[in-house]
User: Fold this.
Amino acid sequence: MKAYVCMKHVPDTAASIKIVGGKQIDETVKYIISPHDEYAIEEAVRLVEKKGGEVVLVTLAKEAAMATIRTALALGPHRAILVRIDQTFLDSQDTARILAKVIADDGPADIIFAGKQAMDTEGMQTCYRLGAALDMPVVTDVVRFDPAEGKAMVEREIGGGEKEVIEISFPCVIGATKGLNEPRFPKLPDVMKAKKKDVKLIDLKSLNLQLDNSVQVIHLDSVSERSKAKIIGGSTGEAVRELVRILREEEKVLD
Amino acid sequence: MANIGVLIETDSTGVKIANYGVMTAAQGEGHQIIAFVMGIAATACTEILGRYGATQVIELSSQGENLAKSPDLQAGLIIDAVKEYHIDFLFGLCSSKGKDIMARVAAQTGAPLAQDCLSVDVAARTVVKPFFSGRTTATLQLNGSLVLCTIRPNAIEEKEAPVTAGAAVFSSARSNDGRLVIKEVKKNPSGRVDISEANIIITGGRPLGSADNFQILGKCADTLGGAVGASRVAVDLGYASHSMQVGQTGKTVSPRLYVACGLSGSVQHFAGMKTAKVIVAINNDKDAPIFQKCDYGIIGDLFEVVPALTEALAKR
Ligand SMILES: Cc1cc2nc3c(=O)[nH]c(=O)nc-3n(C[C@H](O)[C@H](O)[C@H](O)COP(=O)(O)OP(=O)(O)OC[C@H]3O[C@@H](n4cnc5c(N)ncnc54)[C@H](O)[C@@H]3O)c2cc1C
Assistant:
């Protein structure tokens, strides 16, 4: 089984994002594995532990992503490919085409895992575009994955606690979300081993792909937090009655 | 003149209310709005969709294939209809289903797509959407003869723009290649609305202490006609299901009222709900960080305050 995991290197979820020059960000903050990708890595590693084969991590990023790749390799993938780019934002269609090319050249893939969405650009579409580029079926928001011969039964969250039970044939793309598994914590020997694992560097330019740039970031704006709450005092009874009055009469959010 | 398509989501009650904001986003001077529905007769939707500006409602129908089993087939049918009606801007709802189908349409056509938009400028082909889990917004330029976007539920206030809508059926010959088949839909026993589309949400955090205690919130939500959410800690401790988690690794919600009970106010939680219109916090610690970034606060034990709130609401 040859499993690929597409991983994105993103600013820490708690880091404050400083906008530089209108459409860039201060990249000196701490970076992490995009949270949903952790579930993708874990599921790929479990699959290959069971069925044998290899897990290859693929990342499209600036070279600074190397540290994040080492962290990810400690979670079990056998090797990694870093496609080095200069830009911070690359649109989903271009990203998927690049990932597809790299995976096709290195593969063929039996299965590709990724997070259902990246925590920085929140595009929610790369899995689908990757599937289209490689002619593979795609399912995202996956919370359960049961592989069988040549196919898998998966469950997909569709909101309100409802789930779709889907049969999908290999090769396919699986978009992981929280609930799929409990990612492992790397142990020290895993961290040491990860340092020696092979990471192949590919320059985007060497792939000779014409980029579309069909989605461009024009500018970024920071979102300010609300100010301090108005505290409603008095006894519990008084406070809730006053709250209901405000919500109904002033805010008009209750009928 | 712009030909705008809107992919409408329906359920057993008909056109879901969350579509009204999407229709509103699509309205504009010289916009010809064509609404697409599936699994429901177009004539059943003309009145309501006409009220929000649709001049035509088109039922997409497959020739004998079971659409409900294949999202790729649904996407294929939408692509054929988009061509037939010369659509240049296609809108959808950023719900679990909407974002999945729109991403399939985008992938199969190569058209640019922006998901989870907060506002859209049709003429300029720009959208505003969250980046970095809501810590920033990004204004994006979409370039292409067909561009796609999905709107965050409840993000755009609905506005009527009544016209008379016609009805028609569109069908095309596509078949399911069988590589992806929806076998079954597992229903949710609680029957409450999906949090990502709910107008009112009441959420519980770590101090709830058990799944049983979440029923205190359930009662309050039922009185309000709202949904129940949970913090990640509450989910990870098994008090609530994953589908109820709000935040960066959970659902993004934008209700008109959000009541947070026993939540500290973490950055990751706020990533999922800070676009709510009014945020109320109930917390027994007057110094809890959540009081620094919400609209109204009650300092007190949630086990006392929430039942009292439910009672006060029931009396209205
Ligand atoms: C990568 C990453 C992703 C994450 N994603 C999410 C996410 O999607 N969603 C999410 O919610 N979190 C997420 N988190 C976790 C987040 O950082 C917080 O740990 C979590 O939100 C805290 O949950 P809480 O507010 O329920 O609990 P706590 O932080 O423990 O807060 C409990 C609060 O309840 C108050 N309290 C205690 N007893 C009572 C009582 N009887 N009555 C009233 N108030 C009481 C306390 O004063 C306290 O303020 C994420 C973290 C990381 C690192």
